[in-house]
Amino acid sequence: MRSNFWIYISIMLFWGYACKRVEQPLPIGPDYFPLQIGKFITYSTQEITHNASSESSDTANFLIRKTVERSIQDGTKNIVYVIAVETSTDSGNSWNFIRYNTVKKDAYNVQIVANDIRKVKLSFPFKERKTWDANQLNSSHYQRATLLNIDKSNNVANKLFEYTATVELGNDEDLFFTDVETEIYAKGIGLILSKLIDLERQPGKYLQGKEHFNTIYETNW
């Protein structure tokens, strides 16, 4: 009996020690926006412009490619990635350079500077219905970003992505205005879909505003 007792105590002590050594899981989030030089994502883009003055709607279809070109150090010696943004109107046979974006990613968030405007695209760690101000680092009005559907599968462009997360940046619609903005990110890839719908309707008048859709087309991730 005494030997069994000490065996039991030894097992419990070992189990308790082993449990303490179990590593805590990494926070969810950073792998939804990977950064590596040479990686790119190409999007199929549709842009619809509604003009109330001319009572017309124009649709443009083209490709946008975003390539991680290089990394640099900013003024605080943090690593910043430089993203080359190009467009193609001939199915990718030729590309036109548009601009450079920069991306800063740390343990807290992802910041993107495009057209000299810095926005907080993601906030870490991920938590369902977590919110933040996407414009907290610029002079624009408050824009609530809400994180939804973390680690959920999603079918985009006829391809199943096993782990995705959605950021809702606007979801307002009434008889006169539509303000919808959504981004979907996939683990190990990054942004795979975005849509922006900003419309105004006035009684007896033509629709005014824009609709913009980006859907992942090709990537080397």
Question: How many strands in all?
Answer: 12
Strand order, main sheet: write it out.
6-5-4-3-2-1-12-11-10-9-8-7
Proportion of residues in extended strands:
over 45%
Low-pLDDT parts are none
Instruction: Sketch the topology as an H/E string, one letter per element.
Output: HEEEEEEEEEEEE
Instruction: Give the quaternary arrangement of the chains.
Output: single chain
Give the overall shape: globular
CATH C-level class is: Mainly Beta
Assign the structural class, choosing from mainly alpha, mainly beta, alpha/beta, alpha+beta, or little secondary structure. Answer: mainly beta
The largest sheet is: 12 strands, antiparallel
Mean pLDDT: 91
Question: Helix segment count?
Answer: 1
Radius of gyration: 23 Å
> What percent of residues adopt helix (DSSP H or I)?
under 10%
Distance between the termini: 61 Å
- CATH topology name, in short, is YmcC-like fold
Q: What is the CATH-assigned architecture?
A: Beta Barrel
Total count of domains:
1
Molecular structure report:
This protein is mainly β. It has one domain (27-219): Beta Barrel (YmcC-like fold). 9% of the residues lie in helices and 57% in strands. The protein has one helix at residues 2-21, and strands at 40-51, 56-73, 79-88, 96-105, 109-114, 117-123, 131-133, 144-156, 159-173, 177-186, 190-200, 208-219. The protein has a twelve-stranded antiparallel sheet, with no helix packed on it. Strand 2 (56-73) and strand 3 form a beta hairpin. The longest helix has 20 residues, at 2-21. It starts with a helix and ends with a strand. The model has no long low-confidence stretch (mean pLDDT 91).
